[in-house]
Design a protein that fits this description.
This protein has one domain. It is about 70% helix and about 0% strand.
């Protein structure tokens, strides 16, 4: 019989292939991809530039159109320029030519940037039904009362130390325009900025920042960018900060910008209403009496709206329960914290 053959000496050695270089961790345990945020700041700069360009083009187109119309009416060419300047100084015309093109320019830039997003544009901008905490109309109106109160209080306080800010088309339309002009101003400010600015700042900007940063940082940065575009005066910059924070919280808590749009609209309409009230009361009560009435109204608004803000800022208590013995996880209503 032949002796046993040691197969380990006769078989060739087989070298195993090196392990793959891919991440061996399960997909669920890998760190999530962090989206870029520099694109948000680039889009914000582009939105401001687009807004300024649209406003400039609005003045140029309106001036040319007025000049052509006046020329056909037989107005002396030397008087056309003075007539156009006079028309531009009308409160409503000045408001339309400064506010509307700027807002539309910002919206155009953000919609253009949204085309490169893999998300559907409604989801990317937050134009979706609320998915978090449900808030009623009364709650939102109270929140708007608080933002309006803090805005007016900061504006009044700064004006005592810095003096009244320079007149703007909005303040001119309220203080010097007809009551029709005041009404049109309230309607315009309640619609256009409430829609456009919420889409830009709480929709496009804040939603992307929330995907990368904590809620407090994301809301703070979006509010800062929101305040910068209102830099016609220091009073205006600081006055819009509470509005930016509250609408940012609403967008974060509800998962949608629709609630913030309503608060923004009520806030702007209320600001015009306070200006009109001051104009109405001053001839009867004088500056001092009107000031006392307005300050009392501001304090009352703050007290009315404070409970809504406390409820909004309070962190939701965890409703999670221990996993039952059958291994099934109970459904838990999730509130954004």
């Amino acid at each position: 019989m032949n002796p046993a053959v040691d197969l380990s000496l006769t078989m060739p050695t087989v070298h195993s292939a090196p392990p793959p270089t891919t991440d061996p961790r399960p997909a669920a345990s890998r760190p999530p991809h962090k989206p870029r945020v520099w694109t948000v700041f680039l889009a914000w700069i582009g939105a401001v530039i687009f807004g300024q360009l649209f406003a400039l083009m609005g003045f140029i187109v309106a001036g040319i159109a007025m000049g052509v119309v006046l020329g056909f009416q037989g107005v002396d060419p030397a008087a056309i320029q003075n007539r156009v300047v006079e028309i531009f100084q009308h409160p409503i015309v000045a408001l339309l030519l400064t506010l509307v093109p700027f807002q539309l320019g910002m919206l155009a830039m953000v919609l253009l940037a949204t085309r490169w997003s893999p998300e559907p544009w409604r989801d990317r901008l937050g134009l979706i039904p609320s998915s978090g905490r449900a808030l009623g109309w009364l709650h939102l109106a109270m929140a708007a009362a608080f933002t309006l109160s803090t805005a007016l209080m900061s504006a009044i306080g700064l004006s005592l130390f810095l003096g009244d800010p320079a007149a703007s088309p909005i303040s001119t339309a309220i203080s010097d325009g007809s009551w029709i002009a005041v009404t049109l101003t309230a309607v315009l400010l309640s619609l256009l900025p409430a829609i456009v600015e919420e889409v830009v700042f709480r929709g496009y900007i804040q939603r992307r920042l929330l995907a990368r940063w904590s809620p407090s940082v994301a809301i703070g940065v979006s509010t800062l960018l929101f305040a910068i575009i209102h830099a016609d005066s220091l009073q205006h910059v600081l006055a819009v900060v509470p509005l930016g924070i509250v609408t940012g919280l609403l967008a974060h808590r509800t998962g949608s910008i629709k609630a913030g749009m309503l608060v923004h609209a009520i806030h702007n309409a209320g600001a015009v209403g306070f200006g009109a009230l001051a104009r109405l009361l001053t001839p009867h009560l004088g500056d001092e009496g009107t000031g006392f009435v307005l300050i009392g109204g501001v304090v009352a608004l703050g007290l009315v709206g404070l409970p809504a803000i406390i409820a909004l800022t309070r962190r939701a208590e965890s409703t999670e329960e221990p996993v039952p013995s059958n291994g099934m996880q109970p459904a838990v209503e999730s509130l954004a914290s």
